[in-house]
Amino acid sequence: MRHQSPECKLVVAPWTSTGWSCSVLHLDCAQRQIAGARQDIEDVLALVERQILTKLVLRNCVALVIPDILCQLNKLRGIETVNSTLVEWPMTAALTSSLHPFMVSVHFRDTNLTASNFAGLLHTDLPPRMATIGFMMSNISALPDDVGDLWAGRFTHRFRMEQTLIGHLPPSLGRLRIKHLWLTRNRLLKELPDDAFMNASFERVWLSGSALQRLPRSIGHTLKLREVFAEHTDVENLPPWLQQWHEQHVSNGHVLVSLFGSAYCTRPDRQSTLCATDMGTAELSGSID
Protein backbone atom coordinates (compact mmCIF):
# COMPACT_ATOMS: atom_id res chain seq x y z
CA MET A 1 0.00 0.00 0.00
CA ARG A 2 1.31 3.42 -0.91
CA HIS A 3 -0.23 5.17 2.13
CA GLN A 4 -0.39 4.13 5.76
CA SER A 5 -2.63 5.67 8.41
CA PRO A 6 -0.97 6.94 11.61
CA GLU A 7 -3.54 4.78 13.38
CA CYS A 8 -1.58 1.76 12.26
CA LYS A 9 0.67 0.91 15.19
CA LEU A 10 2.42 -2.04 13.60
CA VAL A 11 3.12 -2.01 9.87
CA VAL A 12 4.05 -5.07 7.88
CA ALA A 13 4.70 -4.92 4.16
CA PRO A 14 4.21 -8.03 2.06
CA TRP A 15 4.93 -7.44 -1.61
CA THR A 16 1.43 -8.52 -2.58
CA SER A 17 -0.31 -6.02 -0.31
CA THR A 18 -2.91 -3.76 -1.92
CA GLY A 19 -4.49 -2.38 1.28
CA TRP A 20 -3.09 -1.04 4.53
CA SER A 21 -0.45 -3.51 5.63
CA CYS A 22 -1.42 -3.08 9.24
CA SER A 23 -1.15 -5.71 11.95
CA VAL A 24 -2.28 -3.49 14.86
CA LEU A 25 -4.88 -0.82 14.11
CA HIS A 26 -6.04 1.85 16.59
CA LEU A 27 -9.13 3.29 14.93
CA ASP A 28 -9.90 6.66 16.56
CA CYS A 29 -13.44 7.84 15.90
CA ALA A 30 -12.86 11.31 17.34
CA GLN A 31 -9.81 11.87 15.18
CA ARG A 32 -11.76 10.77 12.13
CA GLN A 33 -14.80 12.82 13.16
CA ILE A 34 -17.11 9.83 13.00
CA ALA A 35 -19.50 8.42 15.60
CA GLY A 36 -18.62 4.78 15.07
CA ALA A 37 -21.71 3.73 13.14
CA ARG A 38 -21.63 0.42 11.30
CA GLN A 39 -20.74 1.99 7.96
CA ASP A 40 -18.16 4.31 9.57
CA ILE A 41 -16.16 1.39 10.90
CA GLU A 42 -16.71 -0.80 7.86
CA ASP A 43 -15.38 1.89 5.52
CA VAL A 44 -12.11 2.04 7.46
CA LEU A 45 -11.68 -1.71 7.82
CA ALA A 46 -12.32 -2.17 4.11
CA LEU A 47 -8.98 -0.40 3.51
CA VAL A 48 -7.02 -2.87 5.63
CA GLU A 49 -5.39 -6.08 4.45
CA ARG A 50 -7.75 -8.48 6.19
CA GLN A 51 -5.31 -11.36 6.41
CA ILE A 52 -2.74 -9.17 8.16
CA LEU A 53 -4.75 -7.42 10.89
CA THR A 54 -4.26 -9.17 14.25
CA LYS A 55 -5.40 -6.55 16.77
CA LEU A 56 -8.16 -3.97 16.49
CA VAL A 57 -8.59 -1.12 18.99
CA LEU A 58 -11.68 1.07 18.61
CA ARG A 59 -11.44 4.28 20.63
CA ASN A 60 -13.39 7.48 21.26
CA CYS A 61 -16.53 6.26 19.49
CA VAL A 62 -19.74 7.83 20.83
CA ALA A 63 -22.07 5.34 19.11
CA LEU A 64 -20.09 2.25 18.21
CA VAL A 65 -21.58 -0.55 16.16
CA ILE A 66 -19.39 -3.54 15.32
CA PRO A 67 -19.76 -4.15 11.57
CA ASP A 68 -20.26 -7.46 9.79
CA ILE A 69 -16.87 -7.12 8.10
CA LEU A 70 -15.43 -8.38 11.39
CA CYS A 71 -16.31 -11.86 10.14
CA GLN A 72 -13.72 -11.42 7.38
CA LEU A 73 -10.87 -10.61 9.77
CA ASN A 74 -9.81 -14.20 10.24
CA LYS A 75 -6.37 -13.52 11.72
CA LEU A 76 -7.60 -11.34 14.59
CA ARG A 77 -6.17 -12.17 17.99
CA GLY A 78 -7.57 -9.29 20.03
CA ILE A 79 -10.29 -6.62 20.06
CA GLU A 80 -10.46 -3.69 22.47
CA THR A 81 -12.84 -0.77 22.86
CA VAL A 82 -11.62 2.34 24.69
CA ASN A 83 -13.52 5.44 25.85
CA SER A 84 -16.54 4.51 23.78
CA THR A 85 -20.24 3.71 23.95
CA LEU A 86 -21.06 0.34 22.45
CA VAL A 87 -24.47 0.57 20.80
CA GLU A 88 -24.45 -2.89 19.25
CA TRP A 89 -22.28 -5.91 18.59
CA PRO A 90 -24.74 -8.01 16.57
CA MET A 91 -24.70 -11.74 15.93
CA THR A 92 -24.00 -10.97 12.28
CA ALA A 93 -20.56 -9.79 13.46
CA ALA A 94 -20.08 -12.54 16.04
CA LEU A 95 -16.73 -13.97 17.01
CA THR A 96 -16.90 -17.67 16.14
CA SER A 97 -14.68 -20.72 16.15
CA SER A 98 -14.63 -21.11 12.38
CA LEU A 99 -14.16 -17.45 11.44
CA HIS A 100 -11.75 -16.38 14.20
CA PRO A 101 -9.60 -19.39 15.08
CA PHE A 102 -6.78 -17.24 16.50
CA MET A 103 -8.87 -14.91 18.67
CA VAL A 104 -7.53 -14.73 22.22
CA SER A 105 -8.94 -11.67 24.00
CA VAL A 106 -11.68 -9.06 24.12
CA HIS A 107 -11.47 -6.01 26.39
CA PHE A 108 -13.93 -3.21 27.06
CA ARG A 109 -12.06 -0.34 28.73
CA ASP A 110 -13.84 2.84 29.78
CA THR A 111 -16.77 1.68 27.69
CA ASN A 112 -20.49 2.19 28.22
CA LEU A 113 -22.43 -0.97 27.50
CA THR A 114 -25.02 -3.43 28.71
CA ALA A 115 -25.19 -7.17 28.15
CA SER A 116 -27.86 -6.63 25.50
CA ASN A 117 -25.29 -4.69 23.44
CA PHE A 118 -22.85 -7.53 22.77
CA ALA A 119 -24.85 -10.41 21.36
CA GLY A 120 -21.85 -11.17 19.17
CA LEU A 121 -20.14 -12.59 22.26
CA LEU A 122 -23.11 -14.18 23.99
CA HIS A 123 -23.31 -17.53 22.23
CA THR A 124 -21.87 -21.04 22.47
CA ASP A 125 -19.48 -20.99 19.50
CA LEU A 126 -16.71 -18.69 20.69
CA PRO A 127 -13.21 -19.17 19.25
CA PRO A 128 -11.40 -22.16 20.76
CA ARG A 129 -8.38 -20.11 21.89
CA MET A 130 -10.48 -17.44 23.58
CA ALA A 131 -8.68 -16.95 26.88
CA THR A 132 -9.53 -13.50 28.22
CA ILE A 133 -12.45 -11.15 28.51
CA GLY A 134 -12.30 -7.93 30.49
CA PHE A 135 -14.60 -5.09 31.50
CA MET A 136 -12.64 -2.18 33.02
CA MET A 137 -14.02 1.21 34.04
CA SER A 138 -17.34 0.27 32.49
CA ASN A 139 -20.92 0.99 33.48
CA ILE A 140 -22.01 -2.59 32.84
CA SER A 141 -24.28 -3.56 35.73
CA ALA A 142 -25.28 -7.15 34.99
CA LEU A 143 -24.35 -10.26 33.07
CA PRO A 144 -26.93 -12.71 31.72
CA ASP A 145 -27.81 -15.51 34.13
CA ASP A 146 -26.74 -18.08 31.54
CA VAL A 147 -23.44 -16.42 30.59
CA GLY A 148 -21.43 -19.27 32.11
CA ASP A 149 -23.45 -21.84 30.20
CA LEU A 150 -22.81 -19.99 26.95
CA TRP A 151 -19.08 -19.59 27.60
CA ALA A 152 -18.48 -22.89 29.39
CA GLY A 153 -15.04 -24.33 28.75
CA ARG A 154 -13.87 -21.41 26.63
CA PHE A 155 -12.08 -19.03 28.98
CA THR A 156 -9.01 -20.76 30.36
CA HIS A 157 -7.02 -17.85 31.71
CA ARG A 158 -8.47 -14.50 32.73
CA PHE A 159 -11.83 -13.00 33.59
CA ARG A 160 -11.85 -9.37 34.67
CA MET A 161 -14.50 -6.99 35.90
CA GLU A 162 -12.77 -3.95 37.36
CA GLN A 163 -14.48 -0.72 38.40
CA THR A 164 -17.88 -1.62 36.99
CA LEU A 165 -21.43 -1.24 38.32
CA ILE A 166 -21.87 -4.98 38.68
CA GLY A 167 -23.77 -5.87 41.84
CA HIS A 168 -24.34 -9.56 41.30
CA LEU A 169 -22.45 -12.35 39.56
CA PRO A 170 -24.52 -15.18 38.07
CA PRO A 171 -23.65 -18.58 39.61
CA SER A 172 -23.20 -19.97 36.09
CA LEU A 173 -19.82 -18.17 35.94
CA GLY A 174 -18.49 -21.12 37.89
CA ARG A 175 -18.60 -23.13 34.69
CA LEU A 176 -15.76 -21.09 33.19
CA ARG A 177 -12.28 -22.57 33.51
CA ILE A 178 -10.70 -19.43 34.93
CA LYS A 179 -7.14 -19.28 36.26
CA HIS A 180 -6.96 -15.56 37.03
CA LEU A 181 -10.02 -13.80 38.46
CA TRP A 182 -10.02 -10.00 38.83
CA LEU A 183 -13.06 -8.40 40.50
CA THR A 184 -11.49 -5.22 41.86
CA ARG A 185 -13.08 -1.83 42.61
CA ASN A 186 -16.66 -2.95 42.06
CA ARG A 187 -18.38 -0.67 44.56
CA LEU A 188 -21.76 -2.41 44.34
CA LEU A 189 -20.51 -6.00 44.58
CA LYS A 190 -21.18 -7.11 48.15
CA GLU A 191 -20.85 -10.88 47.83
CA LEU A 192 -19.95 -13.72 45.51
CA PRO A 193 -22.14 -16.78 44.97
CA ASP A 194 -21.19 -19.27 47.68
CA ASP A 195 -21.05 -22.41 45.57
CA ALA A 196 -20.36 -21.01 42.11
CA PHE A 197 -16.60 -21.64 42.26
CA MET A 198 -16.56 -24.89 44.22
CA ASN A 199 -15.03 -26.73 41.25
CA ALA A 200 -12.67 -23.93 40.22
CA SER A 201 -8.89 -24.13 40.22
CA PHE A 202 -7.70 -20.54 40.48
CA GLU A 203 -4.14 -19.27 40.48
CA ARG A 204 -5.03 -15.64 41.28
CA VAL A 205 -8.08 -14.13 42.96
CA TRP A 206 -8.13 -10.33 43.25
CA LEU A 207 -11.18 -8.85 45.00
CA SER A 208 -9.70 -5.66 46.44
CA GLY A 209 -11.49 -2.33 46.51
CA SER A 210 -14.91 -3.90 46.05
CA ALA A 211 -17.81 -3.66 48.50
CA LEU A 212 -17.51 -7.32 49.49
CA GLN A 213 -18.82 -8.04 52.96
CA ARG A 214 -17.74 -11.66 52.99
CA LEU A 215 -15.81 -14.19 50.95
CA PRO A 216 -17.55 -17.21 49.42
CA ARG A 217 -17.74 -20.47 51.36
CA SER A 218 -15.71 -22.19 48.66
CA ILE A 219 -13.14 -21.04 46.14
CA GLY A 220 -12.61 -24.50 44.69
CA HIS A 221 -9.35 -26.43 44.57
CA THR A 222 -6.49 -24.46 46.12
CA LEU A 223 -3.55 -26.60 44.99
CA LYS A 224 -2.50 -24.06 42.32
CA LEU A 225 -3.70 -20.96 44.18
CA ARG A 226 -0.88 -18.43 44.61
CA GLU A 227 -2.56 -15.05 45.21
CA VAL A 228 -5.62 -13.92 47.16
CA PHE A 229 -6.22 -10.21 47.71
CA ALA A 230 -9.25 -8.68 49.44
CA GLU A 231 -7.72 -5.35 50.43
CA HIS A 232 -9.89 -2.35 51.30
CA THR A 233 -13.10 -4.39 51.47
CA ASP A 234 -15.75 -4.87 54.16
CA VAL A 235 -14.77 -8.52 54.65
CA GLU A 236 -14.66 -9.18 58.39
CA ASN A 237 -14.35 -12.96 58.69
CA LEU A 238 -12.08 -15.51 57.08
CA PRO A 239 -13.76 -18.58 55.59
CA PRO A 240 -12.20 -21.94 56.55
CA TRP A 241 -10.69 -22.48 53.11
CA LEU A 242 -8.67 -19.25 53.34
CA GLN A 243 -7.46 -20.00 56.86
CA GLN A 244 -6.35 -23.50 55.90
CA TRP A 245 -4.70 -22.41 52.67
CA HIS A 246 -2.84 -19.58 54.40
CA GLU A 247 -1.64 -21.80 57.25
CA GLN A 248 -0.34 -24.38 54.80
CA HIS A 249 1.71 -21.89 52.80
CA VAL A 250 2.57 -18.97 55.08
CA SER A 251 5.94 -20.43 56.05
CA ASN A 252 7.28 -21.10 52.55
CA GLY A 253 6.58 -17.64 51.13
CA HIS A 254 5.30 -19.07 47.86
CA VAL A 255 1.91 -17.37 48.09
CA LEU A 256 0.71 -13.79 48.41
CA VAL A 257 -2.34 -12.88 50.47
CA SER A 258 -3.51 -9.60 51.97
CA LEU A 259 -6.64 -8.16 53.53
CA PHE A 260 -4.98 -4.82 54.32
CA GLY A 261 -7.54 -2.09 54.96
CA SER A 262 -10.42 -4.55 55.32
CA ALA A 263 -12.85 -4.86 58.23
CA TYR A 264 -11.02 -8.05 59.21
CA CYS A 265 -7.89 -6.04 59.96
CA THR A 266 -9.71 -4.06 62.67
CA ARG A 267 -10.36 -7.19 64.69
CA PRO A 268 -8.23 -7.74 67.82
CA ASP A 269 -7.72 -11.39 66.85
CA ARG A 270 -6.58 -10.67 63.29
CA GLN A 271 -3.57 -12.48 61.86
CA SER A 272 -1.06 -9.68 61.55
CA THR A 273 0.60 -11.15 58.46
CA LEU A 274 -2.64 -10.70 56.54
CA CYS A 275 -2.85 -7.01 57.40
CA ALA A 276 0.76 -5.84 57.42
CA THR A 277 1.28 -4.40 53.94
CA ASP A 278 -0.87 -2.62 51.40
CA MET A 279 -0.11 -4.48 48.18
CA GLY A 280 -1.89 -1.88 46.07
CA THR A 281 -4.30 -4.38 44.57
CA ALA A 282 -7.29 -2.06 45.02
CA GLU A 283 -5.94 -0.05 42.07
CA LEU A 284 -6.81 -0.87 38.50
CA SER A 285 -4.52 -3.36 36.82
CA GLY A 286 -1.99 -1.69 34.58
CA SER A 287 -1.89 -4.41 31.96
CA ILE A 288 -4.83 -5.84 30.07
CA ASP A 289 -3.02 -8.60 28.22
From TrEMBL:
Protein name per its UniProtKB record: Uncharacterized protein
Taxonomic lineage: Eukaryota, Sar, Stramenopiles, Oomycota, Peronosporomycetes
